[in-house]
Design brief:
Largest sheet: 7 strands, mixed
Number of strands: 12
Strand order of the largest sheet: 2-8-7-6-5-3-4
Oligomer: single chain
CATH architecture of the largest domain: 3-Layer(aba) Sandwich
Shape: globular
Strand content: 5-15%
Radius of gyration: 21 Å
Bound molecules: pyridoxal-5'-phosphate
CATH class of the largest domain: Alpha Beta
Structural class: alpha/beta
CATH topology of the largest domain: Aspartate Aminotransferase, domain 2
Order of helices and strands: HHEHHEHEHEHEHEHEHEHHHEHEEEH
Length: 393
């Protein structure tokens, strides 16, 4: 009776939702303070004070027309502020005509894929992956092609990547820092990927685009630097978001940048503006755009997440668990001590620890921990992890 495609997707997307419901059940049973919920990637860190101040100031304004429709790409002044900021950051010349403000990275990726893909063209994603990619790709009538990464380090397997590119490949989604692993891809791996892409384009006479999904680029630890994708891949569309860098996921604000190096990039921009409109986003929220313009150089302090990472990672390693140390984002992807990680997740629940099975990200045998909970709760969770580890001694 209803859309078969959607009903099938509901079945595939059930893991995080299932954990969310499980969490609510446990919270009711034991009280919210006694549940160690590592399942949700929903930042608990408050936005910077400047964001709240800007919102307060805007709310007092008597300027007329503040709540009207606008160009589908957003306010010119906001796009210019974003363009100037990234021109400086990337050391490239990016103009406002290459920026489209969007309602978060989720909308940005949907709009971008819809603007790139013809029916049944392939989009490469790397395993483990942000589960929503599968649906974004199929919404745009594309075909997801899932490529394994190197075991345990989750870095790109260049051989497998090379083999996965066909004459039907239209785009590659790269997400660094990565959800769910926290891995930041090295410049040398990315440069090698760019060479492979160029060779394949030549071999097949095709154009292959990089969709760089960048919500976590401002959350990196220590001296780690995130390479600028547009400098490495000529045909890059980067999709950015303030959900994590300003802790504003409920406000739905981000932007797409189309590289000026893409031939005919203004036609692609027109397609992006058209799809932003006709997919029903129309334009990014007006007030949020004004806030971004006022807070263009603000970000949350990544040290908050770095301290949590250290606390959690060091304890898990000391207990004998295996995981790659994350360089960014706020996730840790840990090997399950038993092959079926769903059983491990159930064991963890006995100690009020909520984790997400790796199969929710296409990678069974692992679990994801999201450290969007306070250092204090993480500290209190450590004895529970110790008890959990004892089950596997
Ligand atoms: C890798 C990745 N891409 C995109 C998104 C969507 O983010 P936004 O809130 O900006 O739509 C998320 C959200 O968690 C994510 O982890």
């Amino acid at each position: 009776m209803f859309s078969k495609k959607t009903i099938k997707s509901l079945e595939k997307s059930s893991w995080i939702r299932a954990m969310f419901e499980e969490g609510n059940k446990l919270r009711q049973l034991h009280g919210a303070d006694n549940i160690f919920d590592f399942s949700l990637g929903n930042p608990d860190v408050e936005p910077p004070k400047a964001v709240k101040d800007a919102l307060f100031e805007i709310s007092k304004s008597n300027e007329k027309g503040m709540h009207k429709y606008m160009s589908n790409g957003g306010y010119e002044s906001t796009r210019k502020a974003v363009a100037d900021m990234i021109s400086k950051e990337y050391a490239m010349d990016i103009s406002l005509s290459n920026i489209c403000m969007v309602t978060g990275a989720a909308a940005g990726i949907n709009v971008t894929l819809k603007s790139l893909l013809n029916d049944n063209e392939e989009v490469i994603i790397f395993k483990p992956f942000f589960a929503e990619y599968l649906f974004y790709i199929t919404h745009a009538n594309g075909i997801p092609v899932i490529v394994d990464t190197i075991e345990d380090t989750f870095t790109i397997d260049l051989d497998k990547f090379t083999k996965a590119i066909t004459k039907n490949t239209k785009a590659i989604i790269i997400n660094s820092p990565n959800n769910p692993t926290g891995v930041v891809y090295s410049e040398s791996d990315l440069i090698q990927m760019a060479t492979i892409v160029k060779e394949k384009e030549r071999e097949f006479g095709t154009n292959i685009f990089i969709v760089s999904d960048e919500p976590y680029t401002k959350i990196v630890f220590g001296n780690v630097k995130v390479p600028v994708m547009m400098k490495i891949f000529k045909k890059t569309i980067s999709v950015n978001s303030y959900s994590k860098s300003l802790s504003l996921p409920g406000e739905r604000i981000g932007y797409i940048t189309v590289s000026p190096l893409i031939p005919n990039n203004q036609l692609l921009m027109s397609a992006i503006l058209f799809n932003n409109r006709t997919l029903g986003f129309v334009n990014a929220p007006a007030i949020q755009q004004r806030i971004i313009e006022k807070c263009i150089n603000e970000k949350i302090d990544p040290i908050i997440y770095e301290e949590r990472r250290d606390l959690l990672y060091n304890h898990l390693i000391s207990l004998g668990f295996t995981c790659q140390k994350p360089d960014g984002a706020f996730y840790l992807f840990m090997k399950s001590p038993e092959e079926n990680e769903v059983n491990f997740v159930k064991q963890a629940q006995k100690f009020n620890i909520l984790l997400v099975p790796g199969r929710g990200f296409g990678q069974p045998g692992y679990v994801r921990l999201s450290y969007c909970i306070s250092k204090d709760i993480i500290k209190r969770s450590l004895p529970s992890f110790t008890k959990l580890a004892e089950l596997y001694k």
